Amino acid sequence: MKRLFWLAMGITIGALVVRKLSQMAQKLTPSGMANGLAGGLSDLADAIRDFASDVRAAMHEREAELREATGLDGSTEPTA
Fold it and tell me: What is the pTM of this model?
């Protein structure tokens, strides 16, 4: 029974190692590298898009504050 357990354990570990090595080998192929690079560039583009959106929102908020403070928002008196 003990030998059967260790045999099953060895087969399981061997299968996991072969699977992991196969995945790593796939990542090192030209198509695997291209997929990894494309995913990284996509994440970078998303981050840049989010940053630009945040900057635009802050810019519009600050512009509204400045317009209100200077009276350019249509009010008759500037606030001090």
Answer: 0.55
* Top-confidence residue, 72 or 12: 12
- Sole residue written with tokens 């600050």: 62
Statement: residue 47 has pLDDT above 90: yes
Q: Which long-range contacts (CB under 8 A, 24 or more apart) does 66-69 make?
A: none
Q: Label residues 56-74 b or e (16+ Cβ within 10 Å = b).
A: eeeeeeeeeeeeeeeeeee
pLDDT at 75 exceeding the cut of 80: no
CA geometry: angle 36, 39, 44, nearest 5 deg: 125
Using the structure block, give the residue that is written with the tokens 């029974």: 1
Going by C-beta distance under 8 Å and a sequence separation of 6 or more, which residues neighbour residue 70? 78
